[in-house]
Amino acid sequence: MRYGLHALQRLPRLSQRVILRAVGAKGPISRIAVLPCRPYATVAAADLQFGQPVHETHPHLLKPGELTPGILALEYAQRRSKLASKLPRNAVAILVAADVKYRSGAVFYDFQQDTDFFYLTGFNEPEAVAVISKSTAKDDHTFHLFVRPKDPKAEQWEGSRSGTQAAIDVFNADESGDIKELEKLLSRIIEDASEVLTDATLPASSSSVLSRIFSSKSPSKGDSMSKLLDNSTVKPLRSTMNELRNIKSDAEIANMRKAGQASGRAFTKAMKQAWSMEKDLTAYLEYKFKRNGCDTSAYVPVVAGGRNASQIHYVRNDDVFVDDSLVLADAGGQYGSYITDITRTWPISPHFTPPQRDLYTAILSAQRTCISLCRASASNSLDKIHQIAEEILKDNLKGLGFDMSGNALETLFPHHLGHYIGLDVHDTPGQSRKEPLRAGQCVTVEPGLYVPDTERWPAAFRGMGIRIEDSVCVQEEHPFVLTTEAVKEVDDIEALRR
Predict the structure, then answer these.
(1) 293, 311, 428, 442: which is closest to 382 by C-alpha?
(2) Quick one: which of 481, 471, 377 has its CA closest to 419?
(3) Which of 387, 389, 70, 46 is nearest to 249 (CA)?
(4) Residues 6+ apart with CB under 8 A from 407
(5) Radius of gyration from C-alpha coordinates of the chain
(6) 131 vs 76, 175, 481, CA distance in Å?
(7) What per-residue confidence (pLDDT) applies to 207?
(8) Count of helix runs (H) and strand runs (E) in the chain
(9) Sheet strands (E) in 394-498
(10) Please, which residues have CB within 8 angstroms of residue 249's CB and are 6 or more apart in sequence?
(11) Are 321 and 275 in contact (CB under 8 A)?
């Protein structure tokens, strides 16, 4: 069975050219499109076990044609083709899967795949390497995917693996192999490469196959891949991957909208209820994210009551709420590996106090203006919008009696207005916030004020921490707010709190 193109399983032996035409590919056919179809396997996919859901085994999670939720196998192939088009001829790009991380001993954390690797492969297992090797002819390339082989004994303990055959049949690799043979397999690919692009650096302390191969500090340095790479022209891949991931496809935006909608509804439900402890609200939000359709939480939530909100990344979430104080909750769900990022602040009591309302309104007015500027036609960068937020907040605070001389604003508003989002909470790391926003980029807009409990500040506002954050997709003429279900208007919040 040709698992990679689920929607066309009833069309055996059609050429890839016809298949890609059939699923709606437009424009020039890529190199992948002209490969002949592989013959069907004799065992149905539904009777097999893979290292992650596929449509045949989990039709409640994946639609026909999807390799991961919301993303077609065809889109992953197109991403690899785009990467290949940006590589020099005869160059090789190497991407390494994440390692399993351990809390202590044999107790591991939930596996989190390296997002660059995932973006190109959709493969969600550890100990794997993807190689995109570009030929000397135009944009022709070969996709190699080296993974752990099937191993019934290991799988009894650790869960199913997809294996090397599925790397070809499900994930559409042109070539695959046992990850344990990586040095031998990879050396043949890179020995004649014009250059190697990779960000693969793994800690020497890890016991995984990949760390032993890639770490220059490994005891077996003489036999490690780093020794082989020393003989090649090696360049970083990060900026090229950022360029690819920066503009989101319609499918990616749809996934982020699902995450935003589910998470926003969880926030609004939470505001309706009375809470006495931070940990209870934390548990409720994480439960509702999943119950509403998310796969998991996107990051460790911040649930900060009262003065705890002055700590930007307060994650202890172990305090009690005090009447007439505020709660700041910064949390979001993840769907199909795409995240959403929301912050809301609301009163523990049924109503905002007058000072709370005034400070909240000062921030909300700035956020509304900044969201309206998240459109490509405005030619604003995140840095420019941040500066606009600073001016609005400064004027609003002066109106509330704050002394805004010196470094007052830096003290009260110590973080940036926003960051890029996508597969990562802080997506495309290292990407400049000075560049004008473009249609398809997704960002956060999150002004906040954190008033120290010192005599410099008006007494009525001391100890308050308020932040309001939405996830926003930049469009040409207007912003698309991905998290609109999370209530934030004062009157709407108070209506929920009655």
Answers:
(1) 442
(2) 471
(3) 70
(4) none
(5) 25
(6) 14, 10, 36
(7) 53
(8) 15, 21
(9) 442-445, 448-450, 465-467, 470-473, 480-481
(10) 75, 440
(11) yes
What secondary structure letter does DSSP report for 97?
P
Q: Is 26 exposed, middle or buried (0-12, 13-18, 19+ CB in 10 A)?
A: exposed
Instruction: Report yes or no: 458 and 402 within 8 Å, Cβ to Cβ.
Output: yes
Tell me the residue type at 302: V
Distance of CA 318 to the CA centre of its chain: 27
Amino acid at 204: A
Provide the residue type at 207 as one letter: S
With b meaning 16 or more CB within 10 Å and e meaning fewer, what string describes 224-256?
Answer: bbbebbeebebbebbebbbebbbebeebbbbbb
135 and 89 Cβ atoms separated by less than 8 Å: yes
Is residue 487 within 8 A of residue 496, CB to CB? The reply is yes
Buried b (16+ CB within 10 A) or exposed e, 128-159: bbbbbbbeeeebbbbbbbbbbbbeeeeeeeee
361 Cβ neighbours under 8 A, 6+ residues apart: 490
Q: Give CA–CA dist 186/218, Å, rounded.
A: 18
Q: Up-side HSE of residue 232: CA atoms within 13 Å toward CB?
A: 26
Alpha carbon distance 470, 486 (integer Å): 9
Q: Are 164 and 177 in contact (CB under 8 A)?
A: yes
d(CA 92, CA 87): 8
Q: What is the pTM of this model?
A: 0.89
Residue whose C-alpha is closest to residue 418's, from 490, 472, 456: 472
Token pair, residue 162, equals: 């997809």
- 3-state SS assignment for residue 103: strand
Distance CA 80, CA 366 (A): 40
Q: pLDDT value at position 339? A: 98
Burial 458-470 (b: 16+ CB within 10 A, else e): eeebebbbbbbbb
Mean pLDDT, each 10-residue run in order, the chain (498 residues)? 36 32 38 45 70 96 97 98 95 95 93 97 97 87 97 95 97 97 91 91 53 54 57 89 98 98 98 97 98 98 98 97 97 98 97 98 98 98 98 98 97 98 96 97 98 97 98 98 98 94
